[in-house]
Amino acid sequence: MKNVTVIGELNCGRNYYSNVKVELWEADTVGPDDKLNTTYTNSSGQFKVFGQAREIRNIEPYLKVYHFCQNGVHDVRCEITDRFDVPKQYQGKLYNLGLIDLSIATKKRKKKCH
What CATH number does the domain containing 99 carry? Predict the structure, then answer.
């Protein structure tokens, strides 16, 4: 079994962002990606998620973060999904994503407005 643990802290602007859904995924070249685990940020915006997968080669983990942070405020009109890749050298180790301000768009951002 290959595994990884990811920790981090999420803000929306200058505020802690609590109850944000964080999923740990593993990219597959053949077939659909595998969801390894799900967690939510605590009242301080912090999270810790562990996942493992049966793979012959190294796993290619990434996070999906689902939120409503736009321009530093919580706005439920649009759901946003940000993807953060976990560097491969952290397989079997702890990766600290650090402090992420979700009001800043990432390259791998998807936005769905109602």
Answer: 2.60.40.3330
pLDDT at 114 > cutoff 90: no
For residue range 45-56, list pLDDT tens digits in order: 999 999 999 888
| pLDDT single digits (tens) 33-78 | 999 999 999 999 999 999 999 888 889 999 999 999 998 989 999 9
Domain of residue 96: give its range.
2-113
Number of domain units in the chain: 1
- DSSP-derived secondary structure for the chain: -EEEEEEEEEEETTEE--S-EEEEEE--SSS--EEEEEEE--TTSEEEEEEEE--SS---EEEEEEE-EETTEE-TTEEEEEEEEPPGGGTTSEEEEEEEETTSPPTTEEEEE-
